């Protein structure tokens, strides 16, 4: 299994290939489309992270010390970023998740999608992933 | 003749680029862009005239006070109110409505009724919910038809002797519906109810005359009228403003303060506690003058033309559904594209320099009514152009293509 | 080294003339003059960044939101608060106090007590009178000593289990008294009462640290801090802000609105209904930066020097009596001349280009306490000079001569 | 008895003589000092016109169709202007008072003392004088 840092590097390389925002966003959209559907039974109020506009459902479970995430969103762009986060964090150890530095999001030029005050729930999503990791760590 | 280029020159921000493209600003329903003259008046006030208003005996204080009061008079004329002291300065429409809703708590008895509608902005819902919670009054809702008009018949059947207040928006910020408020006011008055109109979306688009409308209270915000942020107006008929108890306590709103007995100042000061947004109020005058000088005929002609053109073009895109198709409609187009979340459209349009708003537009009950998470909303202002609509339509097509 | 001339250059209005003389502005307690950087930030915001904050997905909305929130963070640091969401933007100190006083209505029971003092500004009296009227709580008053200090012993004897809130000003706008608020806060906390401090006259003059003070709530106004009009702050500890019910209903302050059940957003949004004074809040940052860059040591040194010099010189004029001679005192000199009405002094000084304030300064109980109709008040700011004091003293002498 | 207009002319001439604001204000102060004291029994709450800062007491009585005013103020400058108004209106017919055009106040450069929003009660005073005239007219 790759480390979070290794995956970050990989993602950065992926994004480096794009020549313009269109390619980047098309890639995100594709990621969103390809994200495996979350089990319908987890798409419940409790798992809902409410941004102002797009909704994100996040489920986490522990598997021999590692945390497995699954998620969904009603907006495809949000779902694309969610897919990136899952690629990065799902399957990692609780401790690594809790301490992960998710700076790559700035670096790939998606900072504006993550500002604390923006209309999506992404920042809450990252916070929630870390909280799950801490909670499920034993 | 109306030359939109000349108008655009008066709004400096319209020259800027966003994400490498010329800014196309269609989020006017949220807040309009600002006139150079408004910006200059603010600067000039701070550079030449600044001082606290009222009470001061020195020159600057007198100057600031005179200018501050000039705006009040200009607004009186702009909205055809009878008395200058019927114009109360607030922070915005939300503040105006809360002022009234808070005061009504003590005018209402348990079981009294307040009527609002299904298409109200949260600012014209939540204050009444709070008012009802405190006073024991009951909130009644006029339902919405599929085309975004209110059900007038239903309104009539809600009216009764228990109705003490009807609070409606003049124009829906989500659907563009222009409500037939004169009709609503007449019907409400017949049974002795008071009427408050939320004119946040109306005041820069259609001509207002308080005396003709015979409306009891009317509110709007300067920032949606090419004016500064942090300034709003509550118009109220003298008698109702005298009935409503003071909202905030503090400087300026009192006649005499002692620990035994405090007496309140008369209108408008009774409702203007504390140091107001002096620079904002003074600059608001420049915005009102711009609108008055253009005239509402010109404004309506240009904005209606844009509305019709944009509607026609956007409907050519497959899968587009417009919410709000009332007969009388203001320059607001709320739409969705089948299978696409409005948020995604908003993000991609922004990348192409086009600013629209997406989401529930602070009107969640409308979204519930239509069972949608939100809409993408184009809202027009006097400085928008046909060319901007073309750019917007092209961008929507491109976004749709990317998202499908 | 502190060079007042350099500072003065940053305030464009200080170059103007009034009644043919160079403006001498000593009405800073009412409102200070404005920094060029504040004026520029307002203009620049309107010219380059203007959009409604929060919720918007487009670039300008994000930009405006980020800038708006930056000011919140800068203020948190400026006043040493723990959390950014403990900073609530309001219209001004009066608005902040009313927000709290309105919320406390529902936290108080009949017979509970609120303690204020005899030296409060009307903005810290009337809201509590209204709060008591609605809740059945009782207002208790800490009396004033002849020198303008509060009677601490009397405060202690007023404290009891019934005391739910103590609301005091940090610095008296009429007398200049710097109240020993840390002592008051500690004593109030011992019996479990909350404390609100009205810091309108303090925030630009003395260093603040909310966590050290351990104060529950603290308020101030930007326009008294070289900043824009129409912006204020309410700081509140997270727990107390969570206890207080929302003040105004509207956009932004809700989580979900439906006609069945509306839920409120978390801090700080819960208390920020409606479109705020965006330009003002953003420009406030420039004012805070100016104060921080100067530092409170420099500010205190200069202002204390001016205060001492002015006091010494004015006392040389026969018949002058200064109201407010507390040991710890801020740059405010309230005085009267025997046999002369303060209004007459104010009018004549104005003719000589000197702006002071005359009257009751929204503190009628103080005037009653000293049995005077009002005072003439000189209030200092960082840009005032020894030479201005000389001009002022000469003008007072001249006025006195004309009036005797 | 001179008409209101004639007195206005006279006042304007008086003020024309002054070379600077100091002389003008000194004259006002003198007028204030010379204003005959109001009968103490009229210095009551009911007769009080409250400006924000200076207080004005105004008493009016009718004498064979003419209105006689007496007044006082605690601020000498206000009292000076009050003295001017009394010189102008006291002893005139109710009708003339009610219709008097008091434009001279602008002309003698005291406009700033009379702005509706200023701190003295002068505008209320003029209004009150006219109201008395109307009320006492029979
Ligand atoms: C119909 C309507 N009412 C009220 C408001 C609230 O106005 P403000 O945010 O200026 O208080 C708005 C603005 O979004 C609106 O569109
Ligand atoms: C001590 C004090 N409290 C409150 C206020 C009210 O402030 P604002 O008018 O900005 O609301 C003032 C301003 O005059 C003041 O000096």
Summarize the structure in words.
The complex is a heterotetramer, with two copies of chain A (138 residues) and two copies of chain B (404 residues). Chain A is an alpha+beta fold. Chain A has one domain (4-136): Sufe protein. Chain: A (Alpha-Beta Complex), CATH 3.90.1010.10. Chain A is 47% helix and 14% strand. Chain A is built from six helices and three strands, in the order H-H-E-E-E-H-H-H-H. Chain A has helices at residues 4-16, 21-34, 76-89, 94-98, 104-107, 122-136, and strands at residues 48-50, 55-63, 66-73. Chain A has a three-stranded antiparallel sheet. In chain A, strand 2 (55-63) and strand 3 (66-73) form a beta hairpin. Chain A is globular and about 45 Å long. The model of chain A has no long low-confidence stretch (mean pLDDT 85). By secondary structure, chain B is an alpha/beta fold. Chain B folds into two domains: 4-27 and 295-403, Aspartate Aminotransferase, domain 1, CATH 3.90.1150; 39-292, Aspartate Aminotransferase, domain 2. Chain B is built from 14 helices and 17 strands. Chain B has helices at residues 4-9, 36-49, 59-78, 93-104, 126-135, 152-158, 181-190, 210-213, 238-243, 278-294, 296-315, 342-351, 364-370, 386-403, and strands spanning 17-18, 21-22, 24-25, 87-90, 113-117, 138-142, 163-169, 194-198, 217-221, 232-236, 254-256, 263-264, 320-323, 332-337, 354-355, 357-359, 375-379. In chain B, helix 7 (181-190) links the parallel strand 7 (163-169) and strand 8. In chain B, helix 3 runs parallel beside helix 10 (278-294) and helix 11 packs parallel to helix 14. Chain B starts with a helix and ends with a helix. The mean pLDDT of chain B is 97. The chains are: A alpha+beta (138), B alpha/beta (404). Chains in contact: A-B, A-C, B-C, B-D, C-D. Chain A binds chain C through residues 50, 52-53, 112, 115-120, and chain C through 53-57, 59, 62, 65-66, 68-69, 255. One pyridoxal-5'-phosphate (PLP) sits between chains B (92-94, 121, 123-124, 169, 173, 198, 200-201, 221, 362) and C (251, 274-275).
